Fold each of these.
Amino acid sequence: MALTRETEYADDDEIEVREAVPGDYPAVAAFTADTWESGDYIPDAFPRWMADDDPDTRTFVAVDTTESPPDPERVDAVDADEVDGVAADRAVGICQAVGLSEHEGWMQAMRVDPDYRGRRLSRALNDAGFHWLHETGRRVARNMVFSWNTEGLGASRVNGFEPGTEFRWVQPEPDAEAAARTDDAAVIDADPDAAWGFWSDSAARDALDGLGLDSGESWALSELTRDRLRRAAEEDRLLVVSAPDGGLGGFAYRVRTSEREGDDGESQVRAEYGVAAWAGAQSCDALLAAISRDAAAAGAATTRVLIPESATWVSDAALAGAEIGEDPDFVMRADLTKRHWA
């Protein structure tokens, strides 16, 4: 389902929401170049999005129909070689909708030109994404907001999202010789059905609303399924540890390894784990040690492991000696069955 120009989302007569085109690049790069002091990924990602013919992704822009797009040669943030064609109007907001499964969607990359804030552009962009997700069969949409981003949290609530869940990143160091501090818990056979049974009845699942890192979209969360654990086991990406008194004490699964730029500017490999769930501090210790060994075997220099946000989970990881992210992240949720679409 493509968004047509007859579908209206903005109340402002000067603003229109449409699907992005390559010629929007100069305007998008200009107003997203300085989103944060550290920059923004969107100027680099936008050309890839335009070149990708993924049927499960749509990128939307809000445009000022009274303004012409900037000249690429006059925008410092733009590589003119990346521009393919010229847009007829000026992009002043952007948002992307991604279908993660047959019934789940993800909203991301929400940005609005500072000169256009306060004109309800984020609401119009979200509605376009919600509409497309609903038309393609999705009935829930989620997004992620850094816990310190109060403006983003407020905008999410205004735009139709409700509180979902929260999580924290932990980063155990890759180490081929990593060992748990106790011998009472050990790595056991990676039985995906046993791991699924543990997950189904775990406090971690309840805390995370059943979510883990999505296997396709790197900054997205989706429902963890039995099939996903089975695929992880088949590909030697599922880690299971025993409980001190026998049985299963916890599990984790590696979602992917990816190259990223490190603090020194050099490229490095990061291993990402969709969730780590355990029962008790000793099982946590054993599981994080297993993750350290697995990451080293995968050639990773760093890790990123998703855990629930609570005093218990975070302090268990701290007791095991893992590096822990400074702040939690929030996942917001929009029920698309409650919306009425044109």
Amino acid sequence: MSHDDAGFRVRAGQGQRVQTPSNWNIANALTMLRLLLVPVFGWLLISGGDSVAWRWAALAVFVVASITDQVDGHLARKHDLVTDVGAVADPIADKLLTGVAFVGLSILGELWWWATIVILLREWGVTLLRFWVIRHGVISASPGGKLKTTLQIAVLIAYMVPLPEGVAEAVNPAWGWTLDTVLVATVLITVATGVDYVARAIALRREGTSRQRSQAS
């Protein structure tokens, strides 16, 4: 989908001109809400320490923020509210939310630092790739992208759940071993989708450069 100078979008292959939606819409508002919830979540998670009440509060904010991600995407697609602002802000909000969760849990000693570092490098690397090729188009979604995101959120929620002492002792080490196994699988899938994004970005940039050269000639 491309834009013309009159504030319309042109649907690729259809020649239809559609009024560009305003940036002030419900989908973008939910994205902004998610951005605002990130520092609140981080503060509750890290400042709460061993407090079960604070941990549950942090988990509740994380879940609400994660739900807004699903809702704003659905609304944007269903009601044609996709905007350039939303296309940039939405993935940044997602990565900030999960990034703060990974870092916070690592600071608390509940999640391996190496896993957090690898995942953050992949996530923000992909964000930089998006900006690198943005004038040539938008990188198409990786086939494993949704699985990667679902696994990350599930792992983070599982690590955040505050188990009572008696329950924690009863399920350990089986619970811990299961979580660690799923975490490793999540890291592997995250890296694999990152490699796929790199390949797609390079192909998109080459295509865009080739198109520009042909137009210039």
Amino acid sequence: MHDFPEFMKNPLNKIDPGSQFTRGIEGYVFDGADGSQMAYWTNPVGGHSGEHTHEYDEYLVVVQGQYVVLIGDKKYPLNPGDEFFIKKGTPHSGDSLPYTRTIHCFGGKRAERVKSPSHTR
């Protein structure tokens, strides 16, 4: 497969790209009853995710392409099937090749959905 299935890309779950650390990325999110989130992203152009931290743990797995986690001066290249765990409070960033697809699980609320347009009668 070279894309996530259509049922996983419902517009109601689309992540606001302006709220992300990576330009050109497309993502969708699902919320857990405990406040956690699972998000999956496709980055058609590749690029850099700016350094940031979270107040919760993050787990990620690469589905396609390559994602390099950067923590301090260490680089962790991840290929399809590779997993990585980032402890809360750890400053991190990343680089991805074009068409990289990843799945991220967050122990808290990370992603904001696109605001739906208001409808008037």
